[in-house]
Amino acid sequence: MKPLRRVAILGHTGRPGVRRAVAHLVTQLARQHREVRLEGDLARAMGEPGVPVAKLAAWCEVLVALGGDGTALKAARSLAGRRGALLAINLGGLGFLTAAEEREMEPAVRAALAGEWPTIRRRLIAAVVKRRGRVVHRGLAVNDAVAKTAGGYSALHMRMRALGSELGHLVADGLIAASAAGSTAYSLSAGGPLLAPTLEALVVTPVCPHTIASRSLVLSATDAVELTVLGSFDPAMLLLDGQDKVALEAGDEIELGLSRASVRLFQNPARPFTRSLQGKLGWQGSARRSM
Known about the structure:
Elements: E1 6-11, H1 18-31, E2 35-38, H2 40-45, H3 53-59, E3 62-67, H4 69-78, E4 85-90, E5 100-101, H5 105-113, E6 119-131, E7 134-141, E8 144-149, E9 156-162, E10 165-172, E11 174-178, H6 186-189, E12 201-207, E13 217-220, E14 224-231, E15 236-240, E16 244-248, E17 253-266, H7 273-281
Parallel strand pairs: 1-2, 1-3, 3-4, 4-5, 4-17
Antiparallel strand pairs: 6-7, 6-17, 8-11, 8-15, 9-10, 9-14, 11-12, 12-13, 14-17, 15-16
């Protein structure tokens, strides 16, 4: 395996301990003769020049994300379609998407750069919003795309189409389209199923629907769900990973499906998917604990 030399670092500057962790990691990587670059906001917080995340993702072989799940999601979207791989270290809260905890940072980085940890490819969700027949937004999400109202009190009225058929008029607080990775997040809280991380599928889950029969629908990697926004008393929006927000209007058409673009993620051999379910989500009644 060719040695990995170009290492980028992205960190949540609002998290305690991130700057200390970055300084330590930069020192260790310099001793190993790695070339290191910091993302712009992080670099400014450290008093150094930085690189915009898009350029960083195009340059690096490994992107180390220091923070919680939000930081990991931002880093993963930037790597979509790129050759670099993401190593996410948890310096936040739950950190379900991360591969290691802060105390494991140094050995985790060493193992990833040495090729001792495998990587997995995960496809992202592609979202297209059309207004009066014209595309007004294209975006990607690692976990989920959520159509909902801004106020949180008014129901959203939508028409749904999937598998070549009309699925009718949905009245709900919103709708979640989640990848396998996102099946452990908002979709799970809304009653959706858990998917194995290697499964390429899209889970479509209504949020608090007004009919008992409205339940999750699992679509294949080649299928998509199409929504037409009918209206709501509150402004409606589409949220991609809870970070990229698109305002919606009555009549807007939304298409959600798995994209061709994927992202490579380092996997910790000592933390299989089921162990994360048990340790972080309390799956099957196991006691939740920090890993």
